[in-house]
Structure formats: C-alpha cells, structure tokens
Predict the structure.
Amino acid sequence: MTIDTHNHSLTFSDGALTPEEIIKKGEEKGYRVGISDHLSKFHKIKTDGDLEKYVFYLNKLPCYKSGEIDLGQKTIFSKELLNRLDYIIGGVHNLFWEGRWQCLWFMEEEIKEPDKFMELYKKTILRAIREPVIPIDILAHPTKLPSYLARTFKEEIISDEWIEEVLSEVKEHNIAVEINNTEKVPSERFIKKALKIGVKISLGSDGHSREGTANLDWCLEMGKRLGITEDNLFQVRKERK
Ligand SMILES: [Zn+2]
Ligand SMILES: [Zn+2]
C-alpha cells in the first residue's frame, strides 16, 4: 500500500485538515498516511507536554505518527518521547546566513555568494546526520532552494558532488530521501543517483493545504518514470533505531 509519510495537520501545526480528515483523504486516494507535524519552537508543538498530547492523540488513529524536526537546530524534546514516534522526518528550514537565521521559504532577495550558501546548506545536512541530536529516518525536501536561487540558477547550482556527498551520508546512516510533492524536489538526477547506491525513497505530500494534503500525484508520476518499486521505498520499522 502506498504510504504518504509527510502530512501536516491543522490541529497540531500549520496544515488545513484535522488528522481524521487527512486519514479520510488518504483512504480516498488509496494511501496510508503519516501525520508528521512540525516539532519546533516556531510551531504549535513546542514542549514535551505538547508532544506527549500529540502522540497520545495519534495513537488512537489509523495512521503513522511522525514528526518533522529542523535540521541544524537544537531539539527541545526528550529523546524518550521522540522515540515513541514511528519515524522522524528531518529537513533544513532555516540557515544562519549573513548574520541572522533565515527561512529558506522566505529568502526572496539576491544571495550574493550562491556557492558559499550551497556549501553551508550541505554542511548543515551532513553535520545533522553525523552528529544527530536525534537520528532521523527520512531527509525531507532535499535540495529545496530559496526562490532567488531556484529562479536564477535552477538545477545548475546543485552540483553532482553536492548530491553525491549528501547521498553517501544518508546511505551510511540508513536514512531515506523524500520525493516531496509540494515542493517538487528533488530532481530526477538526484533520485537516480539515490537509487543507484540503494538509498530508500520516501513519498511525502508535505501537505499543508486542503488540495496538497494526502496528494502524491507528482511523486507517483516520478516513481513510475524512474521505475521505482516497492523494494526501493522506505518502510516503517516496528521500533525506531
Ligand atoms: Zn519541511
Ligand atoms: Zn513538512
């Protein structure tokens, strides 16, 4: 059965639907869904108490319970609680650039040293995997770029070496990479390289909107084109490592 590993709910973070509505939408599409709300001081689940309520709530529902952490940031949650989740998603959302924390989604202005920026981006991923605050199971939206870089350089800013370094690190730590339906990343080039070295693939809608939630249309199309089979896909383990 197809699993949409990555959905955000209205109840516990910045989605548009409740967990129950997400599960229902998944059923209509023929997927099992994972709810993976943001675990971050910038969102609703900010404390161990919040996380405990979230886990308790999702335990009663027919879905996977997950959470999305910010790579490169300190975690504010206890390991014991985080390990009660079925799997953990980690993605880079903020980078310390030009003297302040900036969110990739809101960086509109020109980035003057794009190569230096990409180096920082890569190092943040590698460090978070090598010295994890909490081990992650899935690398979310790899190669999501700030709009300026995406507009100006498109894929050219992401070198083969950049991709290969990230992939060899995730492979070593048994982390899957996500095909993200909302962000339409990563590229075919990235996924082909991942498949070649045996990195598992996770399909995530990263749904926040009504339309985007439990929607894997783009991921499944890409999967078909690249010949991705069940064997290539991320499987939820019984116990987190
Ligand atoms: Zn994310
Ligand atoms: Zn997300």
Observations:
- The longest helix spans residues 114-130.
